Structures
1.
Amino acid sequence: MSKCKRILLTLVVALLPICGWGQVSARVAGLEGNSKYMALLLQEKQLHQREDSVMNVISQTRKLFAAATAEREKYGQEILRLEGELFDIRNRIGEVGNSINVIEQEYVLEHMDAPALPVTAPQSPAVTVAEDSLKKQVPNLVFNDYFKAHLSPNDYSSLCRSQEKEVVPPVLINTFLDNYRQMEELAATYSTAPRPEAEEAYSKLQTIKGINDVLADSLAHVWNYIYDNKVYAYNYLLDKMNKSELLDDFEKQFRETNQRIASARDQVASAVVYGYPLRKKLVLSYEMALAGILGYTQARDSLAKVLKEVDVLDYNLPPVDPTPRNFIEYGNIEVTSPAKYNSSHPIPQNEVFKYGTVYKVQVGNFIRTQPVSIFRNVSPLCYEKQEDGRYSYYAGAFRELPEAQAAVEQLTKLGFRKPQIVVWRDGIFESLGEEAASASAASSDQQEVFYRVEIGGEGEEMSAGVKEILSSVAQDKEVSRASAPDGGYIYTVGSFGDRESAERLAELLGAVDGVTAKVLELKN
């Protein structure tokens, strides 16, 4: 049996109806006879068990994903599917929890004026440290007797479960970091490799990015559970101790931490991962203060060690988002003999690229495909079947509009009737019509306008980021360098026949740290 099948079998077993888990106790005295309420409590318990089982299966699959080579994509898809099932289970836990809360609230409201019933929670009008002898201490703060004695059974159970879940975030983050390192390697491959290898790398990068997004969602869900239950219990106890100053200080730190995380949201790979050590340190400091008040020295020392470990964590990881590459193959109009296309080498279909701009000249739109002989030995050619069933044929592939306009004149002289310029910008089609095709003739009596891009903020040698952008979108453009008044250097790229291409380059360059770029309009 393969590893993947064994994992699926484990998942099936984990999701089977679970029996023999024992009974549950009513959280509110008096509701023991409410069959719907007790059934919901049992269902909630079962859902938590299933949640744990699915998380175990996901953990096994992630290990296989990290070790696999041939079946890596399959494991990645399986992780995404399992995370989706886990998300559904957690939604169901929330729905069941809400139903339980409604029944409890309605019961309490109905019996507010009734004689008091025995309750399951211990009664203590005020919490004081002195009343506890603290005879026994354990290093784990929440497992000390004080918390069990002064919290309701339900709140203490939630607090203990939160402590047990503390082992989950580091596992999720370590997997996230392993994936992040793979994404960096794939991004480097995408930026430099030939097209087939680059596209494969980009596809893998997007798959791993999807897995990391799911990991971040799981981290947020687990940490929110831990944080909410711990802080609720600690706030309750400190409020009973009248420690308002400590409560106010924690609330202030909580707001500041959230503001810090929010301000970094667009600069990091994951705000949840980035924020985890910041929030974790805040809760640890809170726990250390509480341990000090209660005199739990073992717990305080243990928390201090954990805080020292967390204090060095820094997940300020920049997003892995490589600059899109332009794989368009540009080509001028040629007339060859013999013709480039024939029955053995037919005219290819038009390929639409996701990134980049390409101008082409439409030389015909027909009801059916045409023989290559009608295109007068012109190349390069391609065709595209339209939504209405007609076939459009295009000649050439140009970076700039003036180049396409010159091709229109050339094709007109060859006998093509009313050739029209079309353009794809990042995969989006637009027909510029006959006006753009005839613009070159109209502009012959006017001054020629062209554009260049001026780059500032660079040294004697261009930075790697600027070189990468120029090699990707302006590899055929001339680059010159001149000294700047401030002792630095100014680089000029171009010329460009249209302002749009120049502005696009300037926008990409301006995104590089420390680099400025502006478009210059010039006339002959």
2.
Amino acid sequence: MAEKYSYASIARELGVSKALVSSVLRNTSVTTGSSKKTKRQILELAWNNGLRLNSNIGIVIPREVAQNQILYYHGLVGVIEKCSAFGYNLTSMIVDEHSALPEPLRNHEVSALLFWNDLPEEFAHFAAGEKMPFVLLNPQGKHPECDAVSFSDYGTMFKLLRHLYENGYRKFHYLLENNEMSFNCKTSKAFRNFSKQYQIAASILSPEGNDREAILPQLEKLAEKSDGRTAFITFTRFYTIKILEMLSRAGKRIPDDAGVVGSHLLSEFYNPSLTTIEYPFYEMGAAGVEMLHEKWDARQYVLGREKIIEGRILKKDSTVSTNRRNEKHA
């Protein structure tokens, strides 16, 4: 029977002590006694032979994401359930923008990482140096090239706009809060390209800075001028509420006098219910763990892959008027 690969196997192969191998893999202070070359050799041998310190996965979450539990919760459930299926443990690490490396990371209490939204350069450098596989979930903004699981923001937005077009809407108004986010950049690009391709009247309303109310006077005028060919689109709770307020104040009925696409968190709280985009965060979390599992199983630190998941268009009554429904079923 072949000998199981162990710390002792690495020590014999490299001609170093078992204690040194252990200290490198555990990242203790004794590690400083080894040269960078020796440390790299130890980590390479351990990785190539499927030897890891534990079966713990760490997930690094920006604080602002953790505070928005309504969205974050579904993704975390996907991570937890898939970890359980593979027999992995999970450690959550909530970080701020300039946080130092969390203790579970420094102490090698985890052997692989999931990053949510952002991949801080210091964290990526540490993971690469320690031969710790990682995957970025829902990448936002600029980040180092890496394996990732993301949503098809552009494609999903284009699909939504086609649904509106097919239901007779010809004037689109898209309201954003922060157009620096990756999601907003991609959906705005889809919005502009669709408008140009289909030659429809379209506008993007986005405040400069953080003053969300700055565009409300413009929104109010658009609501007053709206008709059955006008569609208002937003994915934020604040602007969803404001669109509905402005239309009500102008005496407009939804969807006969204007169609509305709103936040999926509010979709079922209104009558008529709101057409929206729903992103499968559960599937994203599960896919991230599956990718880590594949890396461990294949002993492949980098897969060179981005898994893209389509969002779902929830077609509700806020974008299909009574007349249009009758025409469809005639």
3.
Amino acid sequence: MNQIKDPKNTGGRHRLPCFFNNTSRLLYLCLFLFFLSMTINLLIKDSLAQEIKDTIIDERIVTGTGIIVNENVALARNEAISQAFSKAIEGYLVQRLGSQGMANNFQRLDEEILSKTKEDIQDYQIISEISTDKYVKVLMKVRVNKAILEKKLEKIEFREIDTIQIDVLFLVSEKREDFPAIYWWGNPTDQTSLTQTELFLSRVFEDRGFRVINRSFFPPEESYDESMLHLNLTNEAAVKWGQLLSAQIVIAGEANLYGTSTASVFFKAIKVMDRTVVAQSYRERTLNSNLTDDQSAIELAINSWANDMISYIIEAAKPTQKAINQIIIIIKGFKSLSEFLHFKEFLRTNFPEIKSVLERRLKRGSVEVSVGVKGDPKELAEKVLNHPKRPFSFEINELNDQGFTLVIR
């Protein structure tokens, strides 16, 4: 007899419909791809993070020497290591700021960084060491932590004399023993040559980026009054000379040369705009007994005065500047670490308003950087986008008050 079989009766074996089989396979595949993607992402992130970490370390080979005093070799060795630290930090700062930047900001750099070099050293290794009865000398591999240094540099209000040229006029007299004082403004129509004092002042100020006014281009006689012709000028009279010769700063005072080995100077710097004295000081220098050139003594005195006073002059003369704002730039689409580093260097070297560029966060295919800039994000975005030296093609979007996103094409 023909029997009709129940289709639900499969002999005790239950099989899922085809739909559920396909769904399970798809689910397993998705889970596999997800975990594979996560693993690859972590590997790439760790690798790239390590590469970026390496870029914040500046490795230098330097030497240091310590003098042995009272047979204390250990102290001399520590002195040699400290000197090597200083050389490593100084080398990085010169590379980062340039010689002019170092000169313009030396006092602040010494106070904030150079006097505390140990804080900025990641680690070090003594490669070789020489010890004699007089000194200990070490050859070291020193790793400077650039991230710490950049944070310190970010706090320093740098004086950019290379971008702000200050016009300075010298109203300084020079007197040697048993001779009357020499000063050009007593009879400005006479074409007198520059004194040694004026020559040394001109050299040191020009080296710092100032524009020294040529005093031979004096205005007609009716432009100045009797008070402007005295040896000892009042501040008001000095300011009048500054106004006539279009100076921003007037250096007024006197230099005295005693014999062949000693010289002294007393100078004050007056800001012409508001007639305020922004710096003044006395300096005296005496040469060693084996030197007899009194011009060297006056040069030493002038250099000592200038090294201490010029920073205050620059601070007073520079125009009001915008505050440094921290903005966030998210860079997407870079293909390699070198491409990102190239762009970072592009920002540092082509935009004087940018004071710092620091990596903040790393994501897959993107880097978030914090940029210290004098200005707002919109101004910087326009300059970056239209700069002729762009390292590659990119577009800028998501521009807001906090920053912007830069997408490499």
4.
Amino acid sequence: ISGDADTASTFNGSATVPGTTTGWISAPQTFTVEAWFKTTTNRGGKIIGFGSSSSGNSATNDRSVYMDNSGRIRFGATRTTVLTSGTGYNNGQWHHVVASMGPSGIRLVLDGNQVGANSSIKTAGYYWGYWRVGGDQLSSWPSRPTSNSFAGTLDEVAVYPTELTVAQAANHNALGRGAAGNVAPTASFTASASGLMASVNGSASSDADGSVVSYAWNWGDGSAAGSGVSATHTYAAAGTYTITLTVTDDDGATGSTTRSVTVTAPPSNVAPVASFSASSSGLVASVDGSASSDADGSVVSYAWNWGDGSAAGSGVSATHTYAAAGTYTITLTVTDDDGATGSTTRSVTVGTPPGNSPFVQDAFGRTVSSGWGSADVGGAWTVSGTASNYSVSGGEGRISLTAGGGRTASLSSVSQSSADVTARLSLDKAMTGGGVYMSVIGRQVNSSNDYRLKLRVQSNGSVTAQLVRVVAGSEAVIQTVATVPGLAVAAGDGLQVRFQVSGTGTTALAAKVWKSGTAEPAAWLLESSDSTAALQASGAVGLWAYLSGSATNAPVVLSVDDLDARPV
């Protein structure tokens, strides 16, 4: 062809094997053959094809491009389905043929134009052989020409292991005729990720001899392709994906490139922490939840359950008027900007009659790292043993218990003969071994003599309650409920306790325990009296706890909140 430095080959149409490849190969299932040809023959002949033999006529042959006697070009992967051009390609001019087979089917392109295609033909025979140029067996092929061998000139014969597109074939045709061929575009893009979303920008893509007219994005996850210069895609799962950008220019040529992008699942939302203060005046309770917080966002709503069956309140702060005097459990539930919730409870006593002001009150709103500091009402706390086993934070007084170890905290400056003591108790872990013992001390005459409500939380969560007197350091049980009906305690559950001690000479004792967030029982769980002489005097208020020596999950932390003591 014109402008080509090497020479063409002329065939006389009589050679049995005009040209063949030297290597014996497996017949390809994806290929493109290409050739330039010039002839005036009216006897036809094979231009290029695949056959089982490198000499003589092949017993097996297919993948054939040939000319019939009328100058038509025919191509078939097999002889069953053959693509056919119009006549006149034997006019003595140079013509360009490109024939291909692969996943898109078979295609015949002549002089840069597609003249036939069939998408259903994707495979041909499976055997070993040779590419034959200029002649081979054409027996039984449609419109079989007079000659198996081609009489004419062939140039630039090529075999490719891929399917050439029509645009590529047209570009080769233009180059062979001395025209400047289309230069394929260059794909280029940037990619970034935020959580599960990938963002891509292909504006850096270019076309040296024209313009990029379309962008196609393959996200690498089997989803539908994206389009446009820039695009975003949200993946279903975290991982590393290969994104492919394919750009097409104004002449139909394409270019592709890939990049890997790693996307990650967003962090799990952290639930908000509810916290509030409560006070009362007469029958009116006032609450303030502004101490509530959300570590990864903001608190967007506050809901107040007043504990008396009335409609819930709302807002950061609120007030509520109760119908009757008593002690109520208020629950604050806060919701964050991702819909997660957190709750906490406090007890409030309203309608205190004259002369019934508390002599002990402690909401533990301070922070103390060693010991308990001083109560809101009632003076300084005295603790037994190592002070570092006691601390105050987060609105709770905490006692850290080790297996076989007992702890006592007392308000020794208090001295009362009549005490109605309420408190909220909770444990940070489920019980093991023999469980944990905890007591509310209603009258502590001295360090060796007291009345107490003693609770035992066992490993199955059940609760035993006892009225106990301690004299000269020795315990004696006054009354027992072996298993508190309907009460089971898990880690973090709050227990509300109420213990009354009143009178001297003969002391009246009464106690009840119930789960935080539920109504206070109307009846006393335990009720008795005692006349032990050593205990018929005024005393202090305190708490005691002991972790069983057989416990296996020490340390266990007992938390105390909303401690209140006032005359019966």
